[in-house]
Sequence to fold (496 residues):
Amino acid sequence: MEGKLYLYNTLSRTKVEFKPIKPPFVGMYVCGPTVYGDAHLGHARPAITFDLLFRTLTALGYKVRYVRNITDVGHLEHDADEGEDKIAKKARLEQLEPMEVAQYYTNRYHHAMEKLNVLPPSIEPHASGHIPEQIKFVEKILDAGYAYISEGSVYFDVEKYNQKFHYGKLSGRNIEELLETTRELDGQTEKRRSIDFALWKKAAPEHIMRWESPWSDGFPGWHMECSAMATKYLGEEFDIHGGGMDLMFPHHECEIAQSTAALGHESVHYWVHNNMITINGQKMGKSLGNFITLDEFFNGTSHKNAEGKELIEKAYSPMTIRFFILQAHYRGTLDFSNEALQSAEKGLARLMEAYARLGKLTASDTTTVDVKDLRKKCEEAILDDLNTPIVISNLFEAAKAINTVADGKGKISKEDLEELRSTYKLFVEDILGLQVADSGNNGKLDSYKKAVDLLLNIRLEAKQNKDWATSDKIRNELTALGFNIKDKKDGFEWDL
RNA sequence: GGUACCUUGGCCGAGUGGUGAGGCACCAGUCUGCAAAACUGGGUACUGCAGUUCGAUUCUGCAAGGUACCUCCA
Fold:
C-alpha cells in the first residue's frame, strides 16, 4: 500500500500528515496494561487500535519498532490505601509473591491479546525491569533543576517547569486552574505545590515492592516508566505515542514534562489517543466496577452488575469483539450492548462468508459487477486517520458483488477477481486483522469436512429424486447439531 | 466548580453546506419442493430554537440532555 497517512495529533488537535523522523523507520510507544487484574473490554480498544496502526504502518512499508510496556510496579492508591502499592496489596490478600501476581495477569493478558489477533509488540518492557533507567532519569531531572527531594521522595516542580516550558499543552489545562481544583492527596505535605507529582516515592514500611535508590528504598513515580523506557528503546525523540484518552491527563502530560525537563526538548511527535468504551453511556472502567473481562465475553461467563442484572447474554468470539471495535472510529466512544455485539457478530459472519466465497469464484471473460475502486476507497479511508468504519462499509459493498457472482447472477474477469482477492486479503486479514475461521488444515479436520460433504451429497441425490423426507431429515438433523445448511443452485454450502 | 467533548432512523455507527456510508433488525419481492442464504426494492434520520446562506444534519449563537478529564483507570 502507498499513500500519505493522516493521523489526528492530540497536540495540535487536528489531523496532520504523518512524517516519520527517519523513514523508513517508525518508533511507536503505547501504554500497556497494569497487570493486577484481568483485561476487560476497555483494554481491548487501545490494543486493537494500535495493532491496527502498527499493521497499517507496516503495510505502508515502514519498519516499525512498537514498544508496549507492562506496568508491574503498581502505583499509588487513594483512599484508605494511603500510598500502598496496588500489586503488593493484592499479593498480601492472596498470599502470593507480587511478581507472581504480575506474571499471572501478564500471561492472561497475552492469551487474551492472542485470541483477539493482536500482534505482539516488538518490545514489551516491564517497569520492574527498568528501575536503574528510571532512577537515572530522575537524576537527570534533578540535575536539570526541575525536581526537588523531600523526605526521601522526589517531586517534579511543575511551576518551575512551566516558567520555561508549557505544562498542560497536551490536555489544554493551565496551572492556575489546576492549583484551584486539585484535591488534597497523599504526600501533600511533602510537596511544595499540589500539582507537583512524584518521580520517586519513598516506600512505607509495609510496602513490599521496593527498590534501592539514592533517595530512599521506594518505587518509581506514576509516570516515570514510560519516559524512561520509551527513551531507552526509541530514543530521545520518536514518532508516535499512544494510549487511552483517559491517560491524557495527568499521565501523558506528566510524561511530556518529565522528558522535556530531562532531555531539554520534547520527545513525541504524534500523540494518538483512543476513546473509551462505554456501557449504558458510561465509561467502562475498573474504578466504576462496570467492566466485563475479555474472558467473560469469550466464555459467555455469567456477569452480573451491581443490580444483579446479567450484562452479557451469550459468548462472543474474539473476532466479534475485534470487529465490533473496528466498526467504530477509534476516536469516538463506543457503546457496549448485547444488541450491538450480536449485530456485529452477524455482520462479521456475512463479511467472512463473502470472503470465503471469493476464494471459490471462477473467472469469466468480462466483469458485470462494480468492484473497480475498492482498493482505492479502502486505502483512502484507512489513510484518513484509520477510518475503519468506512473501510468495512466498502468491503460490504464489494461483498454484494461477490455474492452476486457466486449466485451466478454476475460475472467477473480474471483480472478483477485477482485484484478483488488481493484487496480483500490486504484489508480483511493484514490490516483489520480479522482471522479467517478454521484455517486449520490438518488431516482430522479434513476427514470430518468430507464426512459432512458426504451426507450433504446424499441429500442432494435425495432431492434430485424428490425424496423430500430424506432430504429434510438430513438437513434438520444437521441443523439440530449446529450446522447451517445453505442450498445453492447446483450444490450446497455449510458451516458450523 | 473548571476544562473539553458529544447528541444522526428501532439499534450500532460513518459522513457531508445541495443526488440518504455501512451493518443489524423490520416489511415486500425474486430464487427455492420447503427453509436458509443470496439478490432487489421499501423508511426522506440528523436534540430543540434562532441566525448566516439561494440552500444546513453539516457553519454561528442560545437552550436542553449526556459524557469525559480535573484521583488509579485503556
Observations:
- The longest helix of chain A spans residues 338-360.
